[in-house]
């Protein structure tokens, strides 16, 4: 093992948070920054073609290819659990959907941490700081309110989708008939309504964080990028060895690079941005975590933090499939050679059509019942259907209406199974493990049926393929939710922030690991509760806020 160099800051993970952090921290030429990524460059062509997520997920070139443990809530099924393993991380393989969540999410974080910096009004500038919203382009259709909530000229491009589907327009009309209002913007703090998603694309290409925050910046002489380098663990000086009040301190990382083990040292901070699976795994491997888990693997305890790897939250989507008669859907377009050729030609000539599609096109936020004062369901609606991700499209015209519980009360875990950092951890989401989550699952399927039964859809003579009209009772629908539910790829919360008196808090409100100097976590794992929507852009906001703290006078 040899020491390669000393840097001021070492960032572990060149994903959503890591790319932004590298940009911001290296903007001062006096800061020496090392950014480490286990995957390679984002040169795989399917990363950049929007529909290419189909070929990036569960592909060892771009994905860690995690799997969950068999889950009782899913009737014993195990799911693929994609996490990006390439420059740009999950932003290179995700759905490209731009959503912030609800104002109450962030106000709740402020209450849980005792830090008003996390209130919605104080997070909004961090969202806007890196935005480049199409409605604020010259000649755009932005109203005054839009200008109050969105930014322009930043690195993170947001555009409208480059397609329309009549069957989705009719679903939106049916949603309105079912009592869901139309909206022009899901990102003003109250996301209730129905409309097409806005996407992180530029002119029909995926816009990942590598393009947004590293392109050009990577050439800064004070920024070093290590690709195809896996961090094996943290270098920690134990209590009594640091001369800094007795607390252990993180001094750097051990990494496997080009066939040898190396050490990189950090003069100021190591920042974990390895995500909700990778960050708790590295903490546990390094002796920071639940004492009983560390003892089980003969890992000396550096900091006994029982919350590391706990509090896992995710959005479970329940996919209802409807056969639609007399409608154009992707099933019918893409199931012939001629249809595939037309799709390819449209993208080649116009950067539009099905190859420019995000995984979901139409969105709706609503309530599962009148008991909720806020939207607690999110719909991802698609003009296609299949048995499961990665399988062929059905040979009949159909749509899929996936619905997820935005605020699940189920909590899972991420725990190492071995001292070997190359072995994946045990991921146990515990989906549908609480009565509330099972009740919301049943209610959400009934809301889907209510929308499908509206007059706007009558001409399609819908046939419910999944779950099937024969399933009507609560018990039937809970069981079917377990059979057909799947992750929508939003794991968070496994190194949550919290108050000093919260024994399960891993980091403080400024994202510093408790009881360890020189170590921060900046990624979706720090969320105490999951946001009421997709999690990629909230993770960018977290990184933006953290960069300000790290560079500030009281970091």
UniProtKB/TrEMBL annotation:
List of residues binding FAD: 231
InterPro entries recorded: FAD/NAD-bd_sf, GMC_OxRdtase, GMC_OxRdtase_N, GMC_OxRtase_C
Enzyme class (EC, first level): oxidoreductase
Top-level lineage group: Bacteria
Pfam families, A to Z: GMC_oxred_C, GMC_oxred_N
Family matches, as SUPFAM superfamilies: FAD-linked reductases, C-terminal domain, FAD/NAD(P)-binding domain
Keyword match Nucleotide-binding: no
Entry keywords, A to Z: FAD, Flavoprotein, Oxidoreductase
Keyword Transport carried by entry: no
Gene Ontology terms, MF aspect: choline dehydrogenase activity; flavin adenine dinucleotide binding
Residues covered by the Glucose-methanol-choline oxidoreductase N-terminal domain: 275-289
E.C. number(s) listed in UniProt: 1.1.99.1
Cofactor dependency: FAD
Protein family according to the UniProt entry: Belongs to the GMC oxidoreductase family.
Name recorded for this polypeptide: Choline dehydrogenase
Protein species of origin: Halomonas stenophila
Lineage of producing organism: Bacteria, Pseudomonadati, Pseudomonadota, Gammaproteobacteria, Oceanospirillales
